[in-house]
Prior knowledge:
71% helix; 0% strand
Amino acid sequence: MNETKEHIIKTSLRLFLQKSYKEVTMNEIVEKTQISKGAFYHHFGSKEELFKEIANMFFSSGVIDYSLFPDKSLKEFYNFYVQYINVSFQKLYELIGVSDKEKVSVNFFLVMFDAIGRFPEFLKIEQDQYNISIKAWEQVIRNAKETGEIKSESSNMQIADLFLYCTDGVFIRFVNNDKSNSYGDDLQKAFDTIYVNLNI
């Protein structure tokens, strides 16, 4: 990817993370990227084409490689998960050049919902990732039950969903509050609470 195209993508991604697709105008993209409309159209046929490439990059960055995760202990698994998510967010923040003070105002769900609404194929990507995630979580929960690490009458899928829904819920709370805690810190506390209660 050449430097101009990368610059357009990075700058526009930041705009799309702060506003909806509809609210970001071509004039704003041109102004923020400091390039001419001709230079923009040399790389992208339209704002929609640019947004689709950004959405594809965004969804690709959210793909989790569970083969890297420890699977003998649920606690080790979810601790690794929190670290993995933190690293993924850090890479995304670095990509768009967002400072620590700005992190809370950046709403990744805006891109996600806009992309799914405009391009149905991204819903399939999201559903495929959920299916991969649920299988990985169910497997480690099954192992944890077999070893006696956790004791719960809830099904493996119910427990897995609890962790995954918690991931999204903590994130929604995080982006809507101005606080010093990181997303990873809040997610760690939530996961620890779930884990403790699995043995009550």
